[in-house]
Every structure is written in C-alpha cells, then in structure tokens.
C-alpha cells in the first residue's frame, strides 16, 4: 500500500497500488451510465480546467442533491446513477456520485471514511468521504451537504470537511482509500429497505489494514 500526506498533513494509504483502479467503473461507481455521463458533460461546460471541474462536481453533489436524512427522504440509494437521478442519498451514496462524476472526466477519485458519533448520540457510525487526486497527492472532500453548523468546502490547500473527529469521543479518521465501496458499507446500503432501517445496519466501525478497527 502506498502512503501519501494529504493537504491537511494526515497520512492517507492508497489501498490499491494501481491508480487506474481509481478511474474504473464498478457496480456502485457506474460512471458509464448515461445519467452520470450527461451530468458530467453538463458540469464540464464552461469550466477552465480539471480543478475547476472537480470543484463544480463537488458543489453540485453537495448543494443540488439533498441529504436523505436532512430532507427526511426514506429512500435508499447506492449507485451513483440512482443518486443523480433520484436526487437523494446519505453520505456514502453521495460519495459514490461524486467519485463517478470525477472519474467520468478522468480525475482519479477514491472513497474513505471517518468514524463519528451519531447525530442523535447513542453510538457511532461510519461516515463517507471522497479523496481526489491532484498534484501528486490525495485531497479529502466531504459532499454530505451543508446545514446549520456544517460548512464543508472544496479545498486542495487544507481540508474543509464537514466534521473533525474528536478522539475523546472515540471518533477517528480512517486512513485507507478505497477504489470501491467498503464491503460492510455497501452490504448495508444494498440490504436496507428504507433509510430508518439503514441507520440501524450501517457499521459503527470499519476493519482496515489486517483487521484493525
């Protein structure tokens, strides 16, 4: 596994050595789907360069697709194309959508996670992020959607994430970057019939690097 320092100085571990894996299409990051291609083409109009496009894609997912919990939407999405078509999704689904839009324009993108305290307390939950590859390293971004108390921004010069983990609350930044969704997260998304039940089945921690949590 290759290690990189992100723009915030944290060591990130690229789980798949071949960077091309972070450009590939898959079951969840289905950037060959017409909905993804059409959305990417629309966002690409008028942008100056790949940095400008990445910012536009990030802000589109952050601002134009309501977070399912914030909006009270009971639907569960996990494919990038479904997130874009149905305009709903939790953090992990939105990360799939952003990764697909980035890869559609040839920008390597990976998935990563944090362990955070649940909004209503009572335990922890894995929270999904995206890492984008620019200038020889990875930069984490959080497209979950802003709300009062949350002000995430696209940044390549220091992280502007929605949340900063508090070690005193057993919150952590997971360092591993995944080319595909973490199996435990994807299994929960695919099995849940609605968002309330998804909330009960999402993992509260992830096994990374030889089984450590």
Automatic annotation (TrEMBL):
Kindly indicate where the leader peptide sits in this chain. Answer: none
- Ranges in coiled-coil conformation: none
Checking Pfam families in the record gives: Transglut_core
The Transglutaminase-like domain covers 39-143
Question: Under which name does UniProt file this protein?
Answer: Transglutaminase domain-containing protein
